[in-house]
């Protein structure tokens, strides 16, 4: 790979994290599950990608998310949130709020619409991102920060690209059976080795992967116990109140996730706007993600007591919620203002860009999806 070199401070931080991970590998007898490696690489205190101080989002970071592409994304999502709050309570929770731009756009739009928001709670693990959010949202007194789920909640829940950053288990077929991918240290570098899955992981594999025992030897993929746990916690919170959650992420339903031809899984890394497949490159300085199995997420929510209200691609959701009408609030004859906004909306909804790869799952308790969203629903594909 030809990737940009980090500066000396960043390299030193990565090397410190590598020593920490190597120390845990030694303490655990020579290997740890990949899920634990990913957890440390992303969330180790002060050194992990999300818990350290490196800029992650935007032009100077590693990737750009939908809220940074266009304010119309947040304005559209505000409409959906308003419909949920009308059935529950005047409150919003956002998980992983990034730079704070989505929160700012949602709150500004709701203020324009005359929709009251008593509290806008952000649950954020990254200290660096929390500081950016506090600066971006200093003019919105209803914003507050928490470190975890409240016991109960009434209102709308937003999560944009949250599930994909949760640690995954890597599993592989070898000799007609499933093996767990572990991480060890070999010749001074991190490397994969096979390990035996425990009963809980075998149950996860058989529950999540359709026709799991028919896949070919050499097939590597992911299962998502941490993300399923997040959905169960979300269900617990909403079951103690009323409301709905809207989750955006890239991924597939289970039957599309585990294609025979997708033999290498979906794990991907992002480093300074370069995407590549090596999770061992500069730990702490790059994002590590996996696509979301939306069937598994919907079933986890449903089994924990939530209703699956809708599932569709991002294009269908944004169009159903009126992003086209919002775009036309700018006069098409005003080319200097209209064309950049039109180009941004095209990126959000085009099947060749984010419109098809990104999906939207809506789950809730004591609330219903807007009729326009229901008409666009494709949850039968789950």
CATH class of the domain at 66-121 and 148-165 and 226-257 and 290-381: Alpha Beta
Q: Which series of helices and strands comes N to C?
A: HEHHHEHEHEEEEEHEHEHEEEEHEHHHEH
How far apart are the first and last residues' alpha carbons, in Å?
Answer: 36 Å
- Tertiary shape: globular
> Which structural class matches the secondary elements?
alpha/beta
Based on the coordinates given, report the CATH architecture of the domain at 66-121 and 148-165 and 226-257 and 290-381.
Answer: 3-Layer(aba) Sandwich
* Main beta sheet: 8 strands, mixed
The amount of beta strand, in percent, is 15-25%
Tell how many strands the DSSP assignment holds: 16
Q: Any low-confidence stretches, pLDDT <50, length ≥5? A: none
Average residue pLDDT: 95
Task: Determine the fraction of residues in helical runs and give it as a percent range.
Answer: 25-40%
Report the CATH topology name of the domain at 66-121 and 148-165 and 226-257 and 290-381.
Rossmann fold
Total number of helices? 14
User: What integer value in Å does the Rg equal?
Assistant: 21 Å
